Amino acid sequence: MTDHPTSPVSQPASTSVGAAGGDVTRLTAAATAAAIAAGELSAVEATQAALERIAKVDDTIHAFLHIDGEGALAAARRVDQRRAAGEALGPLAGVPLALKDVLATRGMPTTCGSRILEGWQAPYDATVVTRLRAADVVLLGKANMDEFAMGSSTENSAYGPTRNPWDTTRIPGGSSGGSAAAVAAFEAPLAIGTDTGGSIRQPAAVCGLVGVKPTYGAVSRYGLVAFSSSLDQAGPLARTVGDAALLHAAIAGHDALDSTSVDVPVPPVVAAAARRDVRGMRVGVVRELSGDGYDPGVRAAFAAAVETLTELGAEIVEVSCPHFTYAMPAYYLIAPSECSSNLARFDAMRFGLRLGDDGQAGAEEVMSRTREAGFGPEVKRRIILGTYALSSGYYDAYYGQAQKVRTLISRDFAAAYEQVDVLISPTTPTPAFPIGAKVDDPVAMYLSDLCTIPSNLAGGPAMSLPVGLADGLPVGLQIMAPTFADDRLYRVGGALEAALDDRRGHPLLDEAPAL
Ligand code: GLN
Q1: Nearest-angstrom CA–CA distance, 32 and 92
Q2: pTM confidence score
Q3: Which one of the listed residues 42, 152, 179, 199 is annotated catalytic?
Q4: What percent of the chain is predicted at pLDDT more than 90?
């Protein structure tokens, strides 16, 4: 691990307009909203600054698939008018945000990074989008992603890859790589990603951000185009733990439109992020998520963070979760199985692309020509794998066994949480890898999610937060907690972030070197 460079990171996530040197794209979301509420900054100015930044850097970064400048400015004007009229504004009013292109959004395209949905417009808003609009968050546009959220590098987007702002020859992670790159490149202070096996936490880790997968069922999946319904969950990407908490609170909560949404109160994530005290907490280091396969720089940054937690008064315990070893193979049966069923809806009849309908061809042929041209290679691979795993005669041997492994993993978590309050591990085995390095080796690509998949299989919440650099590239630490104890992630994350900031500045670039 190298020391954090001082010049590019001096005041990356400034908390006042003055400290940001007038550059409002450097402000945290909380500071942006506070400045707007105080009348120091208008929502239109904040939005214009984000749009100008996008115009400056997004040709290189390619975080966005669609930019809705007019819609964003109109939303910002409404916030300014409401403020002028003396109305009370919410904690994120006027803050710009990048939305992963897997959430149905009225008035914008929703492509899921796929040709099969090119030009398709959703007739309704996902509940996450409805809640963001209700919170007066300014939607800048739709962020690039791996096709249907299948991937770990955003190279599976049909619209071309996104680049990592820390090093534009490298991947920004995936599948929410556009969302993460937008925040890391200061194009937006906030983004929404989705996480089926790690797709919020892994890009957060490799882009130096905070990313959270909330407890399954805590955030509505209504209008989130389904990849693997029993695993998918939307969540926040931000530059600080406090910003992530504000966004988490804005999108979470019961929704009658999603039958898997759980009717429990949203945990006090914002208060937990501000508490900055972990004295007496028991933190378990997962033995199975460490060792030889991990980059030495990742191991060093992780070890230093564990040391910091000890100094902060947490009790560190080594914990074994023996079945985590089987999480990846189980995931790569369950996720493709569910995807093979979910993606059957793209049949050339209902949504998007329709090829070969010349008046002669039958429905089967139109469907097959459309899918042949509309789906990319990774999506086809998963549909074929999942269809095979679910076929009669193989169902028990593959899908059935994988579901049993899922139960064993949940039991490992339950046993661990009898000893500790949270579990920790590195978020990813390596920092960002070069674009192209793993495109021809799906299994090597799948290994990026080794540490993140167990929480999806068991349903518990998990956070990645930046804890240092390895050869100049960000390293993330993962915190996992029991279901519906999402506040514990923020309590530990907030304390660790504050301690690390005191020591060597916030580990996020101020100005991406190549931009
Ligand atoms: N990289 C994993 C996959 O390809 C996880 C993706 C995700 O979380 N959406 O399935």
Answers
A1: 8
A2: 0.95
A3: 199
A4: 89
